[in-house]
Amino acid sequence: MIALQMTLSALSGPMTAILVVLGIVVLVVLLLLAQFISLWLQAYMSRAGVRLSDLIGMRLRKVDMRTMVLSKIRAIRAGIDITTVEMENHYLSGGRVPTVVTALIAANRAGIELTWKTATAIDLAGRDILEAVQTSVNPKVINCPGADPVRGTDKVDAVAKDGIRLLAKARVTVRANIARLVGGATEETVIARVGQAIVSAIGSTTSYKEVLENPDYISRRALDAGLDAGTAFEILSIDIADISVAGVEREANVGAKLQAEQAEADRRRFQAEAEKRRALAVAREQEMKAVVQENRAKVVLAEAEIPLAMAESFRSGNLGIMDYYRMKNIQADTSMRDNIAKPSPEQEQRPGDSGS
């Protein structure tokens, strides 16, 4: 007995140390597993199908375990079948798993066909999948054009055939098209196309009055143009919210204002045309004066040939000296008669000028 007691007393020291070490190891393991056990227990009670090994693998792969488990629980409870591997792959690809799961739940409740592959593709493309689903369920209104701080106006500027400039503003009701969300054009494209359709519709009208009387004409033409082709939206309606004549938005009588401006423009146009005709007349007068001077020069040249012809006639004997004197007398008599026929300076003076 004494020997056995001595043996036990000798072994009690190492056994105590071993038990202490084992206790510490067990405690550390329990502490490490504690962060997994709570999530695993929550997933198990929710029948999410997440294993403890899956949680450990998420921790090693630097995946947010809580986000994955909570998202998986929400999807399973909503009746959406998603594997943990698919969620991890999307998370590691840089996707937003909670947003995609929320969008899938909303689409499922709204009866919209949306698969996990399509939803993750939209999310990785940079689009807000949740907003797209919400827009598909509840259409939203887009102002056309949007506010432009550079231009300083929120209206489309267009000119009718009669030259009157109009300002129009439209409200476009759109619904997201999930099938065309990847690769489809954004809201900016829809706004640009609607603005172009408004400008084209106003420009094709004969008078601005037709547009003011029937704004629906613009809406019908814009809708018939198929402006939502190639975009991520489906245009439901285009409503003209406001239309006015540029520069006279606050005038009570727009017609009178435009008529006055048109009359002033016509006056300036007629003055310009009259000035043009006067300039043409002055130019024509100067041309005629130049023609007269040219003809006078020809006459002077012709008169310069007369003495030469007379000298030639004298030499050839066709003209005698008496014929020459007779011609001179006739010229002198004609000049005297012309001088007598001219009125005197007193007769040329007007009667009103004599008393001044």
Question: Could you characterize what this model shows?
Answer:
- The protein has about 350 residues and is of the alpha+beta class.
- It has 13 helices and 4 strands.
- Strands 1, 2, 3 and 4 form a 4-stranded antiparallel sheet that branches.
- A hairpin with a 5-residue loop joins strand 2 (about 155-160) and strand 3 (about 165-175).
- Helix 5 crosses helix 6 (about 115-125) and helix 8 (about 185-205) crosses helix 10 (about 215-225).
- It starts with a helix and ends in an 8-residue tail after the last helix.
- The model has no long low-confidence stretch (mean pLDDT about 80).
* Overall pLDDT confidence: 80
User: What value does the Rg take, in angstroms?
Assistant: 52 Å
Count helical runs.
13
Please give the largest β-sheet.
Answer: 4 strands, antiparallel
How much strand content do the residues show? 5-15%
Question: N- to C-terminal separation?
Answer: 175 Å
| Whole-number tally of structural domains | 3
Q: In terms of per-residue confidence, which ranges show pLDDT below 50 for 5 or more consecutive residues?
A: none
Quick summary of this structure?
The protein has 356 residues and is α+β, with helices and mostly antiparallel strands.
Structural topology:
Layout: H1 2-45, H2 52-60, H3 65-77, H4 84-92, H5 97-110, H6 116-124, H7 129-137, E1 140-144, E2 156-159, E3 165-176, H8 187-203, H9 208-213, H10 216-224, E4 233-245, H11 254-316, H12 321-341, H13 345-348
Helix pairs in contact: 1-3, 3-5, 5-6, 5-7, 8-10
